[in-house]
Write a structure and sequence with these properties.
Elements: H1 19-30, E1 84-85, E2 88-96, E3 107-111, E4 130-139, E5 148-153, E6 156-157, E7 159-164, E8 167-168, E9 173-174, E10 180-183, E11 192-200, E12 213-214, E13 228-229, E14 233-234, E15 238-243, E16 247-256, E17 261-269, E18 275-282, E19 285-293, E20 297-301, E21 316-324, E22 327-336, E23 341-346, E24 349-354, E25 357-358, E26 361-366, H2 380-392, E27 397-400, H3 407-416, E28 419-423, H4 434-451, E29 457-461, H5 472-482, E30 487-489, E31 507-512, E32 526-533, E33 535-536, E34 553-554, H6 558-576, E35 581-587, H7 611-626, E36 639-644, E37 652-657, E38 660-665, H8 672-677, E39 680-684, E40 692-696, E41 703-707, E42 710-714, H9 719-724, E43 727-731, E44 737-741, E45 744-752, E46 755-759, H10 773-776, E47 779-782
Parallel strand pairs: 12-13, 26-27, 26-35, 27-28, 28-29, 29-30, 31-32, 32-35, 33-34
Antiparallel strand pairs: 1-15, 2-3, 2-4, 4-11, 5-10, 5-15, 6-14, 7-8, 7-9, 7-11, 16-17, 17-20, 18-19, 18-21, 21-22, 23-24, 24-25, 36-39, 36-47, 37-38, 39-40, 41-42, 43-44, 44-45, 45-46
């Protein structure tokens, strides 16, 4: 991948405060205080503005301030006390894509909500033939005199050009998911200043990273599938910041747990001849401090470091000072979490490890869409809400799916303790040309740079299901070299949709709907399930397009959804975890437009599942990875009979008759034929030697086999037959054994009305009935009726 250096800007004019005041102000700014920001006054008389009606209202839709939306400090890992938020009402116009600046701006838009959204007040379809224009005036606070003024954009999709007082600020920025800035000091005048921004966004018609965006109608409509409404223009906070002429631009922090230290690189602009001092503290007490060169790595001691984990997301405070001839030229605040990430063999199995220990990573696919703001959450509380629901539901991980959120989202993940798998947003599905590849790789570098110090981020996911795929192996190697402190996933869903596995990276990642599938580690990579689930439940009154929702498996009601979902989590814990699976991503945390497979509705008004029950299942899964139970083994090469454990039916055993398998009462007085039919030879699994197959005693070469849910005694060959005839044992109550289908983990042998079926927890067939499910699927491996 092409590596781009950190941007540098010409600077002049220092301004300082006493250090203790600076520290207090930086802490307050980090937590979202707006009282400390410099005031920015719009000089034009405001015109009437109202939002458009949202297709669905979230709990925050009607609470978004008109003039000060998203007022929180936008860059929590590099804080300064003085800043000014430019979010709010801007003048707005749309022209043809090739037009110059319009003579007038007849509309108004609420920044930073995209033009397609209701919260912007525009809510119109934007195509590759359009160009968006924004305009507002501001006055620089008088307290900033003598300092440089930086104009920051959290993100703007896609090609963004900025003018201040009719003079262009820097080069146009191409990219929809990375922050960028311009030093506008030399463009400013006294009093009111005018900023004009143009944005051209071709969405999927261009070659750039777009993620799930597609040019569609902006109001609810049928169709759309797994792709959603486009998000064009400014979609993250726009803000001003005064800086010294020599100032810090970025902190790269990598914990080194082995040596109890923090590796730090302080990057800056105008810093020739300067040194950097970094101090790590907690509760106001210094833990360690060190001084080193700007732009080069040095280390800060962190003795007896408290580990950051999902259960204890402890964060240290960090301060970086820029020093020149003993004086402090600049100071910034930050934070870090001391943790390590890697892959190691645990009990002979390749596993991802956090702080040297394996913990199963269970999370959801998080698309980051909102019915009112589309790409932009209506408030910081809303942004945090989805992450908090992950914690409430017992998850310890989230996969941010082909979108990159504002830095405050990562801040919330860091503080809440969620492991983040961060996708690089994909290009369109077609194979990209050379220009698109160069742009995508450069933007990916910037995304990594801007989030490389967040402790929650544990894996970079390069590509997804082959969308815009190319050079998978090379990219994985280069991302790993660029950030060796994290796991790299060369392709999520290597088994899906024409994708090509690069064969490298730290994990092999399958997508299985509904799942959980049979993913296993390979020679050099741990096994993860990058997507599974997709269980759907439409909630009347909470559908984006009523009647238009789809899922990978519709559920008739909440009871079935709960049973089915918990059944999947239990299957991962009971069957797939012992056989090498190390992480799983459920699709998905919320409904999104016409996708109805969320655990929450799209408007975040309804949690569809039983939170306590799902949390318990997730905690049991995580606990099983920390304290694995001894594997269940069966006596290979010996004859056994499978007895029913359901109370009142314990004299019944599995037997075959005319090819079909049922249960029947067997006792000492039963005939020889019945006893032979009820006896099975246990052999290594035909499809997986770590599981088992059951061969008929009196019909050698014929096995218990499920077919279309019913269970038969059959012979056969081929991969399908071998998989259908293989069962993996799971520990049941009171020494009993449950038998899970090898190729359908989470479906179990069950007797129902004297017949034997493959039953699914939460399934909709009669044999899936929840009544006595656990008892009916538990068997004794008893002495054989026929030796």
């Amino acid at each position: 991948m092409r590596r781009t250096p950190a941007p540098r800007s010409p600077v002049h004019g220092p301004g300082h405060r006493r250090r203790w005041v600076t520290t207090v102000l930086m802490v307050l700014a980090l937590f979202g205080s707006t009282a400390l920001t410099g005031s920015v006054t719009a000089t034009a008389a405001p015109r009437a503005w109202t939002p458009r009606p949202a297709p669905m209202t979230t709990p925050w839709t009607d609470r978004v301030p008109v003039d000060t939306p998203l007022p929180e400090y936008p860059r929590p890992q590099l804080t300064r006390p003085d800043w000014a938020n430019l979010n709010g009402i801007w003048d707005f116009a749309v022209t043809s894509a090739d037009a110059g600046r319009p003579a007038s701006f007849p509309q108004q838009i609420r920044v930073p909500f995209v033009a397609e959204s209701a919260l912007s007040g525009i809510q119109r379809r934007i195509t590759q033939n359009d160009k968006l224009w924004y305009k507002r005036t501001f006055t620089v606070p008088s307290g900033w005199d003598g300092r440089r003024v930086q104009l920051h954009f959290g993100a703007s999709d896609w090609r963004t050009t900025v003018w201040v007082n009719d003079r262009q600020a820097g080069a146009p920025h191409s990219g929809g998911f990375d922050a960028f800035s311009h030093d506008i000091t030399d463009l400013l005048g006294p009093g009111a200043n005018t900023v004009v921004v143009s944005v051209w966004d071709p969405t999927q018609t261009g070659g750039q990273a777009v993620g799930k965006q597609r040019i569609n109608d902006v109001t609810p409509h049928p169709g759309g599938g797994i792709f959603y409404t486009a998000a064009s223009g400014i979609w993250q906070t726009v803000w001003l910041e005064p800086t010294a002429p020599a100032h810090i631009t970025r902190l790269d922090m990598v914990p080194d747990l082995v040596n109890n230290r923090l590796k730090v690189t302080v990057r800056g602009a105008g810093t020739s001849g300067h040194q950097a001092r970094v101090t790590v503290s907690t509760g106001g007490s210094t833990v360690g401090t060190a001084t080193g060169p700007v732009g080069s790595e040095f280390t800060v001691p962190v003795p007896s470091a408290r580990r950051w984990t999902p259960d204890d997301p402890f964060l240290y405070d960090v301060r970086a000072d820029l020093l020149s001839a003993g004086a402090t030229a600049d100071s910034v605040g930050s934070y870090t979490g001391m943790r390590s990430v890697g892959v190691a063999r645990v009990d002979g199995v390749l596993r991802p490890v956090l702080n040297g220990e394996f913990v199963f990573q269970t999370g959801t696919l998080d698309q980051g869409y909102w019915p009112d703001g589309i790409y932009t959450a209506p408030s910081d509380a809303a942004l945090r809400y989805d992450l908090q629901k992950h914690k409430d539901l017992g998850f310890n991980m989230v996969r941010k799916h082909i979108k990159v959120e504002p830095q405050r989202w990562f801040y919330h993940a860091d503080r809440l303790g969620l492991l983040v798998w961060q996708d690089m947003p994909s290009m369109d599905l077609r194979t990209p040309d050379a220009a698109a590849r160069t742009q995508w790789e450069a933007e990916y570098d910037r995304v990594i740079d801007q989030h490389r110090s967040s402790p929650s981020v544990v894996m970079w996911v390069n590509q997804n299901e082959g969308w815009g795929q190319y050079d998978q192996a090379r990219i994985a190697n280069e991302v790993k070299a660029y950030d060796p402190s994290r796991l790299v996933n060369n392709m999520s869903g290597v088994n899906c949709c024409g994708s090509v596995d690069g064969g490298n990276g730290d994990v092999v990642d399958h997508h299985v709907y509904v799942g959980p599938g049979t993913t296993v580690p390979d020679a050099g990579r741990a096994a993860v399930l990058g997507e599974y689930g997709g269980l759907g439940l439409k909630v009347p009154g909470h559908e984006w397009y009523p009647g238009g929702g789809f899922s990978y498996e519709d559920q008739p009601d909440a009871a079935h959804l709960n049973d089915r979902f918990v059944g999947l989590l239990d299957a991962i814990r009971e069957v797939r975890l012992p056989r090498g699976l190390s992480g799983a991503v459920y699709t998905e945390i919320t409904d999104v437009e016409n996708e109805a497979n969320g655990l929450l509705t799209y408007d975040r008004q309804v949690v569809k599942v039983d939170e306590a029950r799902v949390r318990a299942a997730n905690r049991a899964l995580i606990g099983a990875s920390r304290s694995p139970a001894a594997p269940v083994t069966l006596p290979v090469g010996q004859n056994r009979s499978l007895g029913v454990t359901t109370p009142g039916l314990t004299n019944r055993y599995v037997r075959h008759r005319d090819g079909a398998v049922s249960t029947e009462v067997v006792d000492g007085g039963s005939g020889a034929l019945l006893k032979n039919d009820a006896t099975w030879r246990i052999v290594p699994g035909l499809a997986d030697g770590s599981c088992y197959s059951f061969e008929s005693r009196n019909y050698p070469g014929e096995y218990l086999r499920h077919r279309e849910y019913r269970v038969y005694k059959e012979s056969g060959n081929g991969d399908l037959f071998r998989a259908d005839a293989t069962f993996c044992p799971v520990r049941g109550a009171n020494g009993a054994v449950r038998l899970s289908a090898h190729n359908f983990p989470g479906q179990y042998l069950r007797h129902y009305d004297a017949q034997v079926w493959l039953a699914t927890p939460g399934g909709t067939h009669a044999w899936d009935s929840p009544a006595l499910f656990a008892e009916d699927t538990a068997w004794t491996v008893a002495a054989p009726w026929a030796p």
